[in-house]
Design brief:
The chain is mainly alpha-helical. It has one domain. Helices cover 75% and strands 0% of the residues. The chain has seven helices and no strands. It is elongated and about 60 Å long. This is Cytochrome b561. Belongs to the cytochrome b561 family. InterPro entries: Cyt_b561_bac/Ni-Hgenase, Cytochrome_b561_oxidase, Di-haem_cyt_TM. It is a multi-pass membrane protein.
């Protein structure tokens, strides 16, 4: 059976798999949800400190914030396992070693944040509220990384025209 599988493979990995692409975009949507609606958690926390009842919308969004954080953590564990097992596609032909290093560092920084931010939120919520200050640093860090990452993808697509963006839109591209 293994020989049959090996015979089916046609050379090195060119692009991301369907699973990697789906997980990437799922994580994008979940992180954007957190960035847009995450302030509700702060509102609920402040209401608890004052001894007042939080706004019902904030309470609902705060509960969703917690569950979406767990979902991000689970999706990232799966995505990292796939990346470690399958590896990333090679960089575009002719890409400078400096850009390759920046791309690799950016991806690992994303993985760090995608673990550290939910974990610090869990620690803050369940055990040590002071960890919430560390958790809140994740928002500006994510915004900066997202802008850099999306900007780089668009630069590759429209300036360099090297097809890099297609790797995250079409399996095997």
């Amino acid at each position: 059976m293994r020989k049959e599988f090996e015979a089916m493979q046609v050379g090195p990995v060119r692009g991301y798999t369907s699973s990697q692409i789906i997980l990437h975009w799922l994580i994008v949507v979940l992180v954007l949800f957190q960035l847009i609606f995450g302030e509700s958690m702060s509102s609920v926390f402040r209401a608890a400190q004052r001894g007042t009842t939080p706004d019902p919308n904030d309470a609902t969004l705060a509960t969703l914030h917690i569950w979406v954080g767990f979902a991000i953590l689970a999706a990232v564990v799966i995505r990292l396992a796939l990346r470690l097992r399958q590896g990333p596609p090679p960089p575009p032909e002719g890409q400078s070693p400096v850009l390759e290093w920046i791309a690799t560092a950016t991806h690992w920084l994303f993985y760090f944040l995608l673990f550290a931010v939910p974990i610090s939120g869990i620690v803050a919520y369940y055990w040590q509220p002071a960890a919430g200050e560390v958790h809140e640093l994740g928002k500006p860090a994510f915004i900066i990384l997202i802008v850099l990452h999306a900007g780089a993808a668009l630069w590759h697509q429209f300036w360099l025209r090297d097809g890099l963006l297609m790797r995250m839109l079409k399996p095997g591209a």
